[in-house]
Amino acid sequence: MHTYLDCIPCFLRQTVDVISTVTDDPLLHEQAVRQALRATAELDFQATTPAAMGQRIHRMIRELSENPDPYRLIKDRSNRIAMTLLPELNRWVSDSPEPFSTALRLALAGNVIDFGVDHYTDVSEQAIRKNLREAMHANISPEAIQSLRSKSLQSRTILYLCDNAGEIVFDRLLIEQLGPEKIIAAVRGGPIINDATLEDARQTGLDKIVPVISNGSDAPGTILEQCSDPFCRAFHKADLVIAKGQGNFESLSSVQTRIFYLLKAKCPVVARHIGCTIGQYMILDGDKNNRHVEPQGNAARKEVYDA
């Protein structure tokens, strides 16, 4: 997915929001905005994904503020709240007549914990519970559930691309339904927004359930040319890749391979690109061998299910 004109205000908003949070120095605020403006002026819209531009902006902010992980406290809090909810959610899954569907819905609901789209995202326990309830009643098609389930059963190896801290707790529920013995989970290689890293995997015990690897990159997505050799080997070897979140979709949607994208459409650019409305939980089948729907823009052809 390339960058659109509508992405520019979002880049600038992120810059102002984050630099204002990590420092109260007005000179650094101005410097950050000027650097972001220069970067957008030089942007090749067709060749650059929003994830790559986000990486550039957040690297600049970390350097200016001398803060290597501006979202660390937010990530810690998100992990703690999600872990508090985990025993109850495990019961939801175990008591459900359709545990796979329930776990899938809860994993989708976790994608709301995203500070890249909205710096002031409410990740209180009350807000998270509200999203969990909404996801449980979302109109997700049986075809979508069955397609993912069928491909996962046919796959000997699955690479699960995680997205955000806190969210990875809900991913545990789906991973356990998919079969932990054949799954490798991947997290970001360095701090970027509130995306999950190895530290978050250890905090939430994900590394006790499945092997967890770093992708070697600090982009808010999966930019394969930046990723480590071990990650790329796992990516190309996997029979199935499950990619959580908008950042992974933005950076991988042109890759013709066996990927299922699970996300909540949280911005108008992604929603238009996919062909859905803001707020929809989406399952997108990127397998080139499936029936295809051509979305707006230049994304890879894919089958789209809406939730």
Share in β-strands: 5-15%
The termini sit apart by 21 Å
Query: How many individual helices?
Result: 12
What is the CATH class name of the largest domain? Alpha Beta
- How many separate domains? 2
Low-confidence stretches: 288-307
- CATH superfamily descriptor of the largest domain: Uncharacterised protein PF01937, DUF89, domain 3
Query: Per the principal axes of the C-alpha atoms, what is the gross shape?
Result: globular
Order of helices and strands: HHHHHHHEHEHEHEHEHEE
Structural class: alpha/beta
Q: Total strand count, please? A: 7
* CATH architect. name of the largest domain: 3-Layer(aba) Sandwich
Q: Estimate the mean pLDDT confidence.
A: 89
Return Rg in Å.
Answer: 18 Å
**Largest beta-sheet characterization:** 7 strands, mixed
Strand order of the largest sheet: 3-2-1-4-5-6-7
CATH topology of the largest domain: Rossmann fold
Structure description:
The chain is α/β, with parallel strands linked by helices and 307 residues long. The protein has 2 domains: 7-65, Orthogonal Bundle (Helicase, Ruva Protein, domain 3), CATH 1.10.8; 77-306, Uncharacterised protein PF01937, DUF89, domain 3 (Rossmann fold), CATH 3.40.50. Helix content is 49%, strand content 10%. The protein is built from 12 helices and 7 strands. A 7-stranded mixed beta sheet has the order 3-2-1-4-5-6-7, sandwiched between helices. The longest helix is centred in the N-terminal third of the chain and has 24 residues, at 72-95. The radius of gyration is 18 Å and the shape is globular. The two termini are 21 Å apart. The relative contact order is 0.14. Mean pLDDT is 89; it is low at 288-307.
